[in-house]
Design goal:
The N and C termini lie far apart (60 Å). With 100 residues, the protein is an all-alpha fold. It has 5 helices and no strands.
Length: 100
């Protein structure tokens, strides 16, 4: 019962993340697809559907593997953002050095 509710909660959370990723530029389309797959794997109706249609059960080990691989791929797809320091932060550090 608790596992089923957790699957519903996390599956819904991944669907929300999928919708949020779709609102961003094109590299996030792959991330949205991964979140969609991860959400579908977690939802209990998907497990019942695969068992009825394909006679194949998505057990906990497969769900865990899909989620872990999905997170690794999301990490690889997220564009790296280079952070440039603010021009004000450099002056702030100089002022702090003068005080010491």
């Amino acid at each position: 019962m608790i596992v089923s509710r957790l699957n519903w909660f996390l599956g819904t959370l991944f669907f929300i993340a999928c919708c949020a990723a779709l609102m961003n530029p094109s590299p996030y389309l792959a991330i949205a697809t991964l979140f969609l797959i991860m959400g579908l794997v977690l939802l209990p109706p998907t497990s019942r559907l695969t068992q009825q249609r394909f006679n194949w059960e998505i057990n906990g080990g497969i769900k865990t593997a899909v989620i872990v691989v999905g997170f690794i791929l999301v990490y690889l797809f997220v564009p790296q953002v280079e952070m440039n320091p603010s021009p004000y932060s450099h002056g702030h550090n100089l002022n702090m050095e003068r005080l010491n």
